[in-house]
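The pair is set out directly below:
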Amino acid sequence: MIFLELVLQNFGPYRGRQVINFSPDNDNCPIILLGGMNGGGKTTLMDAIRLALYGHRAQCSTRNNLGYSEFLTQCVNSHAKPTEETSIELAFEHILNNVQVVFNIRRSWTKHPKGGKDTLYVSVDKWLDDALTKTWDERIEDLLPLGISNLFLLTANK
């Protein structure tokens, strides 16, 4: 799994649409390191990746004991209007049926999420895949199991 791009819309401290390009410059070493001052949003980016991949099962730093609906509401940028959409979109490369493809995971919600949930869309090579969307919780366990994701998606505070 090689992360390519993360798009945030009104997520946490990130107001409006923000695009973070993770495409590796060197195909031999696709390691991503994020650096910055305390409070600069590094942990928020990691939480966004976890939330995109795992949804209601995501182990995010600010979730604590919040229910999923409350957590989604907490993630909305404080300057966003109540009707404005908040979304996370994660694009990554992975092998599917012996072919390298680009997955795109998109989760969206408003300040008061309908039914307390987000809306999920999963596409493969820019084609929406309804079957994969419906089974994403099981499929992500095949790609990057939640139990070991913290070994790959880690943060360090100094």
